[in-house]
Amino acid sequence: MANSYYDPADLRKFGKITEWSEELGTKFFDYYGKVFEEGALSAREKSLIALAVAHVVKCPYCIDAYTKDGLERGITKEEMMEAVHAGAAIESGATLVHGVQMMNKYNKLSM
Amino acid sequence: MEQSILPEIKKAAKKSLKARENELASTNKQLEILNGGPFAEGELPYFKDKIAEIGHAPLRPRKLEILQINVGYMCNQVCEHCHVDAGPDRKEIMTRETMELCLEVIRNTGAHTLDLTGGAPEMNPNFRWFVEEAAKAGIQDFIVRSNLTIIRANKKYYDLPDFFKKHNVHVVSSMPHYTRGKTDKQRGDGVFDKSIKALQELNAVGYGMPDSSLRLDLVYNPSGAFLPGDQEAMERDFKKALKEDFDIDFHSLFAITNLPISRFLDYLIASDNYEDYMYALVDAYNPSAVANVMCTNTISVSWDGWLYDCDFNQMLDLKVGSKVKHIKDYNEDILNDRNIVISQHCYGCTAGAGSSCQGTVA
Fold first, then answer.
1. Radical SAM core domain: from which residue to which, for each copy (chain B) (predicted)?
2. Residues 17-76 of A with CB under 8 A from B
3. Whether A76 and B237 lie within 8 Å, measured CB to CB
4. DSSP state for residue B93 in the 8-state scheme
């Protein structure tokens, strides 16, 4: 057993979750595969969205997976970093918009 | 990749592994690595066992369609991923005598495609004579794998587009990416600009234009430890970018997987990517690609006339498993009755949509 919570080699074992719950695991991977197919959005666009979300949810496995996926699709590093900023901007915006709540509360409590 | 490794690889990559006396210049060492590690430890299945699952062991040839001749390992570039370990310091060059033997075979072969490769094939001093003679054999599809920069490397090569046109040669050229950064990183500084200029010159004589019979195809192979993406999507992206940015036209894009041998193997090991890459290749194994891998319809000839199942086996010095092993004894019927020699590098040709010198196979 590894003595840290994250082991890069665990990513390649992802599929094994199906072994302990075949029905749910299979449904999940079918769904997952379907989501990233070409659709109204291209698979390339969806790969960049996944990369941005991977950063927002701070999943190291997903960051590795979608950096590699981007490279395979010929996505440039500039495009990848812009996607990360898009995620970061929403995440910081989500924090900052709560500043309005703080302002409201401050004003309510103040004479 | 660890930052500390990068400068070391970059510096070393100016010479071939052979010139650097790197241990990976030894084919035995490469085969030891390919047979060891996760395969010897039972974590990953050997290729022979994997194809046995679908009744393809031993792997056997289909009808011979492609005769691929490597006219020498000398090249004007030293690309980091090169499976040939080619470069200016390589002196292995096919002689005119061996070319004569090849011509005899070309005149009588049942193959419909002749595929000249290298190194930079144009650097062989007898290249033009060989092309002129081979073109007379009337073979259906005559390919020369040109690295593009050779056309701009020296005045004596400037007329290559016209020369190719005169002999109706099908030009297949490497182009790792449509951006300067990624191309130069893999192939060397300045390669992108020279390649763009060479493509424009090929277009100018008619190569690659939408309705032109002068075929110009590009080869894309990943610039790092990852697999190629969808060939059609990549082709769309390349066409759009090269047209918009440089007014360049070409016909098809072949997406080729880097096989873990020679300089690419050296890179994988030095950057600590080898094991992950082998897992990725095995994970992406596609049984439907097996029946059409290129070794099943190709014979590869080396600069010194030895025969191989493919150019990769040639670089691992895995000669054909036939009593006919050399071009001087060439006999297509005997050769076609052989078992193809395989090792773990073969996973590179069965990953995803499959990979061959003609692109995907599945």
1. 59-292
2. 42-44, 68, 71-74, 76
3. no
4. B
